Amino acid sequence: MSATELDLRETIGYTVADASGRIVGRVECPMFGSSPEVPDALAVRTGFLARRRLVPAESIEQIDGGTRVIGLRIERDSLSSFL
Q1: pLDDT at position 58 over 60
Q2: How does pLDDT run across 15-46, given as a tens digit for each residue?
Q3: Which among 45, 49, 62, 70 counts the fewest CB atoms within 10 Å?
Q4: What is the dihedral sign for C-alpha 35, 37, 42, 47?
Q5: In this structure, are strands 80-82 and 69-72 parallel, antiparallel, or unpaired?
Q6: How far is C-alpha 72 from the chain's CA centre?
């Protein structure tokens, strides 16, 4: 399933993996920027008491609703982090 087929607002709790298959973290919430109806990115928590990473929607390669995993087309080191 592609990123456009599933609403990013429904991905809270999904596991995010980078292009190498390494776990980035879990989706904490969608983030809205240019439009209040369509999320531009996801906030991904990397661990307990850890920072969050910003995953832009265009970096998502696929979303598997069955296993609740989001696959990225980029490496996790290229993702921005924030509090």
Answers
A1: yes
A2: 999 999 999 999 999 999 888 888 999 999 99
A3: 49
A4: positive
A5: unpaired
A6: 8
- The amino acid sitting at 57 is A
- pLDDT score of 6: 60
Q: Which helix (H) or strand (E) holds 26?
A: strand 23-31
CB 72 within 8 A of CB 41: no
Nearest CA-CA partner of 74 in 16, 32, 33, 14: 16
In the 8-state DSSP scheme, what is residue 1? Answer: -
Q: Quick check: helix, strand or coil at residue 78?
A: helix
Q: How confident is the model at residue 1 (pLDDT cuts 50, 70, 90)?
A: very low
Q: Are 56 and 33 in contact, with CB atoms under 8 Å apart? A: no
Residue with tokens 């999320």: 39
Domains and CATH numbers, the chain: 8-82 (2.30.30.240)
3-state secondary structure of 11: coil
